[in-house]
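Problem 3 from the worked examples.
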Amino acid sequence: MQTPERLDGRALTYIGIALVTWSSAYAAIAYALASFTPGEVALARLAIGSLCFAVLLTVKRVPLPARRDWPVLTLLGIIGLTVYHLCLNTAETRVASGTAAILISLVPATTAALSAIWLRERLSARTLMGLGVALVGVVVVVLTSGKDVKVEPMAALVLVSVLASAIFFVGQKPLFTRNTLLGVTGFTFFAGTLGALPFGLGLPQALMHAPPSHIGALVWLGIAPTFIGYVAWNAALHRASASQVSSFIYFSPPIAVLIGWVWLGERPTLLTLVGGVITVGGVVLANARRRRPSPAPVIATPAKQS
């Protein structure tokens, strides 16, 4: 089944759902880390997501991916889910949220580079310029929103998360052509959960001593950013190119600032809003397509009289 490879209304809706849920994950992770280790947070999040997928696949009777794809999907699940979440959770114990936001914003550029090499997706100069402009906008948003940005060796783990995420996004793309969307996503979650198991063996005991609010943060992480977010994101990847879809990750920091404004009353500065506008402009530029020149009108010539 071939994908339309275009950003239609449905793809944009899926991207919006993923970004809104993902934008809430960073605060929820920081909140849960007060009672759980990074490995326990990763295992709980992936296990809850896997349970949701198991129920969904059973109810909808979705077939598992082809057996020949199991090794690749297992590797992608461990890299894109186990490694990504372990590194991000560990980094959040030391790295300021502003630093993490800027580094995670390297995902679109990394995904675009891998897509060009792995999937042979052509990247126009306009796309590259748009990615660069959007990154500048993200930096402005983070630096002017009061978030702390520090040079920290632990930030290298965020860069590992960036690379793992890009491999995960790009690697799944060819598998959607011969497997179901839910089957591919669910299988990677099962593999990612098994990969995280050795790092969260103390989870049952930690749950017994954690306050309900911290357990609630884990439940939220497993259902909203994980299950709903990844299904929506992969649905968008199924309809458009990996480089196009990943460019919208630049919207995550501005959305987080907007959530803080509405929910916590944290009013952004004028420069923060300017940075948000720059980010939007960069993403629009990156995804703009050149209009094909319209064909010249054909002028009918009168038939010669015989």
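Problem 4, a separate protein:
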Amino acid sequence: MHSRKSRRLRKKLYLDEFAVMGVELDCNLTCKDESELATIMDDFFVYVDTLNLCVGGGGDLTSFAGFISSQERYGSVTESDISSISNWLKGQNIVAEFNMGKLVDANYGT
């Protein structure tokens, strides 16, 4: 798995054992107004923060798309995090459907 690059260079470039993994998220929402959207998004961000993760993205009353990654410099999203977030989303009546992608390299997209 190690390339010919030195450990120090692999770390600087976030390669091999230092790769940072994240996941894409697409949600279809059934929000009636902006306040309902703000409530679900605030709750979602707080929940994701409790997992020591962060979300970047955007949307409107009908959909939200984003990328979830770790708050740690060399941290990654885990399969356990994905299932935990999926379970949380399933419990929200405003979320009509959602799709969590596979883990991808947050820096290189592979």
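Solution to problem 4. DSSP finds three helices and five strands in the chain. The first strand starts at residue 21 and ends at 29.
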